[in-house]
Amino acid sequence: MNTIRSLLKKTGVQAAFFAAFGAAAWYGGSYYERQRCREKLASLGLPVTLSEYPQFPITPIISAAEVDQNRVALVQKRTSEIMRFGFPSLNNVRYFDDFLLSYDNRTRVANWVFEHLTEENLKVKDNVNRELCQFVEDPTIHQFFRSTNADYYRSGYDRGHLAAAGNHKLQQSHCDQTFTLSNIAPQVGVGFNRGAWNRLEKYVRAQARHNSNVYVCTGPVFKPHREADGKKYVKYEVIGERDVAVPTHFFKVIVMEGHDNKLTMEAYLMPNQPINDNAPLTQYLVRIIRKSLYNNNSISPPTKLSK
Question: What are the DNA/RNA non-specific endonuclease/pyrophosphatase/phosphodiesterase domain coordinates in residue numbering (predicted)?
Fold first, then answer.
């Protein structure tokens, strides 16, 4: 005992002793606090381990040996063709074999989807069957931010395509990928997804068959409206456990390159509501700058546009 007391009288030993004592107390206290938090989270039915919360990287890490280098090269080549005039934004971009998109973790729908259509790639192969496609979650998006089929179940909304399945029937895999839920948004069914929006998609395909190239950018819009107090608000419905946002409108911007290499552009803004079958599509033509005001993306007209 006397030996211990004599050691503690030495300044260096005192410092080491109290440091060790403090560290042990801190570790014990923090361990108790973590256990208490785990018990509280478990009682609320919430995840209790850090691995169950969003972390970086949020996409799977795979070795180079597992990557199909041929497919990577094809996707890179196709991307350069699709994005000939540049990207509207670079937020959370996801690459598919025949289209690509930017995903919004907050709304659980895409910011935009980009496609490149030609008469050749619109051809339908005999072995491609849309009925074989199934709506699937996007595994590249963390489960906290992805939409699910359960979110749409009994919601009253269709699972509406942004990159239309009818635009990608050259290969079964291309058509399958359009059913990935990151390419889907809640759309009113009768009168919109199965009506006016479908007519617009058919119109785009018709333009692709009469031009050398057609570039299509499609996405949701959450348009502000003025209320009784004179102020403008952005309000929209959300569906499902993941709170998938229901857009108030949808836009589609079409850049057409004719056989004479001249470029023309059309932009459509359609409300996500039943639209009369007799309403002409031209009723929803808008100036491109107007669409940009309602969306965080920048869709700039390419050079050499004739209108």
Answer: 95-305
CATH class of 64-293: alpha beta
**3-class secondary-structure state, position 64:** helix
Q: What digits encode the pLDDT tens for the residues 274-300?
A: 999 999 999 999 986 544 444 555 554
Q: Is 225 a catalytic residue?
A: no
Q: Which of 222, 211, 297, 295 shows the shortest CA–CA distance to 254? A: 211
- Please give the Cα distance from 110 to 115 (Å, whole number): 14
Distance between CA 205 and CA 164 in Å, rounded? Answer: 10
pTM above 0.85, yes or no: no
Which candidate in 116, 161, 168, 174 is catalytic?
Answer: 161
pLDDT in tens, 188-230: 999 999 999 999 999 999 999 999 999 999 999 999 999 999 9
Is the N-terminal amide bond of 57 cis, ω within 30° of 0? Answer: yes
